[in-house]
Amino acid sequence: MSSIKLLLENAHIEGIRYFDTYRKNGGYRSVEKALKMAPEDVVEEVKKSGLRGRGGAGFPTGMKWSFIAKPEGVPRHLVCNADESEPGTFKDRYLMEFIPHLLIEGLIVSSYALGSNTTYIYIRGEYAWIPDILEQAIAEAKANGFLGKNILNSGFDCEIYVQRGAGAYICGEETALIESLEGKRGNPRIKPPFPAVKGAWDRPTVVNNVETLAAVVPIMNMGGEEYAKIGVGRSTGTKLISACGNINKPGVYEIDMTISVEEFIYSDEWCGGIKNGKRLKACIPGGSSVPILPANLLLKTAKGEQRMMNYESLSDGGFATGTMMGSGGFIVFDEDQCVVKHTYTLARFYRHESCGQCSPCREGTGWMEKLLLRLDQGHGKMSDIDLLWDIQSKIEGNTICPLGDAAAWPVAAAIRHFRDEFEWHVTHPEEAQQ
Amino acid sequence: MNETMIEFSQEQLEKVSQIIARYPEGRQKSALLPVLHLAQEAFGWLSTETMDYVASLLKIEPIEVYEVATFYTMYNLKPVGKYVFEVCQTGPCMIQGSDDIIAYIGEKLNIKPGETTEDGLFTLKTAECLGACGYAPMMQMGKYYKEHLTKEKVDAIIAECRNNASASN
Ligand SMILES: NC(=O)C1=CN([C@@H]2O[C@H](COP(=O)(O)OP(=O)(O)OC[C@H]3O[C@@H](n4cnc5c(N)ncnc54)[C@H](O)[C@@H]3O)[C@@H](O)[C@H]2O)C=CC1
Ligand SMILES: Cc1cc2nc3c(=O)[nH]c(=O)nc-3n(C[C@H](O)[C@H](O)[C@H](O)COP(=O)(O)O)c2cc1C
Ligand code: SF4
Ligand code: FES
């Protein structure tokens, strides 16, 4: 299977970080094209492309854009979500570090389509060196007439500002992000109203992921219909996957969504197989919030079909036997890894990151962490496993934002598929303590 | 204890105005996170005095600043060492041995996570996923990441910090 690259094709060209090189390699054509079209027609192209949000939820981008409210005299905003904090996910960072102009180009076209004259990039605070790279790209785009007042004489004005977060996973959730942009604690708001109706400063706001906005560039260049021909079914275009864990070649890969999970793990083009010749035990394919799958269910669906690297195939079977594409954070575990310990570190993560507004999430994540630590260290009881199951089931669906679900799902999946390993920790306390 | 005057330089004040101008009229509170970053860079950490100063600059109540400063992990509410090592301990880093790295740094500097060395040079902290899982184990040190850590690399980093510190004294 040959690989199609739409986003990272030029990422390795020397000097691509700078405007001149980027432009020489075909950069900013999509802006020239879009500004000659009506904004609605740009939205239409994105609709035709079938592009789905790359931040994890997979919501159709064109549809979201068409939902933006347009009350008379009220400014609208586009906000780029660069908060990337989901364990296992480091694709947006790669894009911003190596080919920043692709994001800026996508932001200009998207701002035009949505009528946003002031657009923000909200980036996680820890990526402290990346704002310099982005601001440099913005300044260059502006110096060349692609940003600022009356871009390419189209009458469209646009400014892009970069704002750093300050260390809070929850600020990746779009309404928490908006609160943070307004200078507040990152406490999620109740949806609806969706940001597209009432967002930053109560104005209509579209929040999109870095990769989603970058994908608008090839969509404009090739046309939505052509883009939709890549991939399969409702998984159109290409997807960035950040791969890590016990593999030979960790890194960021662009795939078209017709390859199988097996190919992705074992082919030298991608992960290059399991490190040290070990056996594959399990995988979390879409960032820490999605269910872990044991090797057999990862490579083949419950129906015995090859599992493919796309939205539909990864979620085939629901949570009983499937998982999710999520943010594309692909974490691979070899036979030596302990699922109980890993589930504990994830529980610790979610307890640490809960904003504390909803009691099921605030209390539940704390309980799960405690129980998992006890089990991992060989001090657990059989009834703890059932208690753990009970707690996670009471969080799911009972909270303001999906962080609660995201904390519950990994625990549920670990018990569902690896119950014997939890039981072993109870029946072999001494070995577990080592 | 605090000898530096809590006041931005002219240049920093200009930066503050530029930041405020990014947001809609009357929404200068939106500048809070960036201005707190600026204050932390200038004064090392966020004392009550510093937070009150930021509140006065943005014309908001001090409590609005405290609320925010305590919510986000990157703001230091007490003094930290000149060099802060924040080692990621989340799953993908753990697989690659982050526990050993944390223990090694702790032993070498004779501090536990959360502590600062007596000479005020180093602070060790644990962190949750920093978006470098493919380059694990890793830590954040100031503005930059140090990736693919090994014990030898840790030794070299610490030696370099000590060198730089004695050179700047
Ligand atoms: N990339 C990362 O680092 C992380 C990603 N995630 C992902 O986030 C996902 C959950 O995100 P949510 O935003 O809560 O999902 P969601 O399903 O509520 O929303 C997805 C997007 O569609 C929009 N939307 C949905 N219905 C709409 C409507 N009727 N009108 C207008 N807009 C509408 C929302 O505003 C949002 O932008 C999870 O699936 C997870 O994979 C979670 C943690 C970190
Ligand atoms: C707890 C939590 C954290 C999230 N973190 C991120 C994130 O870091 N980056 C991101 O793009 N989306 C994140 N999301 C999803 C956003 O809420 C939103 O769906 C996304 O930014 C929309 O962009 P898209 O449609 O382009 O995917 C998070 C959601 C939740 C519930
Ligand atoms: S689910 Fe958790 S993180 Fe989300 S709003 Fe409730 S307490 Fe906060
Ligand atoms: S797990 Fe350490 S950087 Fe992601």
Q: What are the bound molecules?
A: 1,4-dihydronicotinamide adenine dinucleotide, flavin mononucleotide, iron/sulfur cluster, FE2/S2 (inorganic) cluster
Helix vs. strand class of chain B = alpha+beta
What is the spatial order of strands in the main beta sheet of chain B? 2-1-3-4
Mean pLDDT of chain B: 96
Beta-strand residue fraction of chain B: 5-15%
**Which class of secondary structure composition applies to the elements of chain A?**
alpha/beta
Pfam family, one (chain B): 2Fe-2S_thioredx
Protein name (chain B): NADH-quinone oxidoreductase subunit E
Keywords (chain B): 2Fe-2S, Iron, Iron-sulfur, Metal-binding, NAD, Translocase
GO molecular function, one term (chain B): active transmembrane transporter activity
Describe the structure.
Chain B: It comes from Niabella ginsenosidivorans. Chain B: [2Fe-2S] cluster binds at residues 88, 93, 129, 133. Chain B: Keywords: 2Fe-2S, Iron, Iron-sulfur, Metal-binding, NAD, Translocase. Chain B: This is NADH-quinone oxidoreductase subunit E. Chain B: InterPro entries: NuoE-like, NuoE_dom, NuoE_N, Thioredoxin-like_sf. The complex is a heterodimer of chains A (434) and B (169). Chain A is α/β, with parallel strands linked by helices. Chain A has helices at residues 19-24, 29-34, 39-49, 61-66, 91-98, 100-114, 130-143, 174-181, 210-222, 224-229, 261-266, 295-299, 311-314, 318-321, 339-353, 359-376, 382-395, 403-427, 429-432; strands at residues 76-82, 116-123, 159-164, 205-209, 231-232, 235-236, 238-245, 251-256, 280-284, 293-294, 329-334. In chain A, the strands form three sheets. Chain A has a five-stranded mixed beta sheet with strand order 8-7-11-9-10. In chain A, strand 7 and strand 8 form a beta hairpin. Chain A is globular. The relative contact order of chain A is 0.12. The longest helix of chain A is centred in the C-terminal third of the chain and has 25 residues, at 403-427. Chain B has 169 residues and is an alpha+beta fold. Chain B folds into two domains: 10-71, Arc Repressor Mutant, subunit A (Orthogonal Bundle); 83-167, 3-Layer(aba) Sandwich (Glutaredoxin). Chain B has seven helices and four strands; from the N terminus they run H-H-H-H-E-H-H-E-E-E-H. Chain B has helices spanning 10-20, 32-43, 48-58, 62-71, 91-95, 98-109, 151-167; strands at 83-88, 122-127, 139-141, 144-146. A four-stranded mixed beta sheet of chain B has the order 2-1-3-4, covered by helices on one side. Classes of the chains: A alpha/beta (434), B alpha+beta (169). The interface between A and B is large, with 55 and 42 residues. Bound molecules: 1,4-dihydronicotinamide adenine dinucleotide (NAI), flavin mononucleotide, iron/sulfur cluster (SF4) and FE2/S2 (inorganic) cluster. Flavin mononucleotide binds next to strand 4 and helix 18 of chain A.
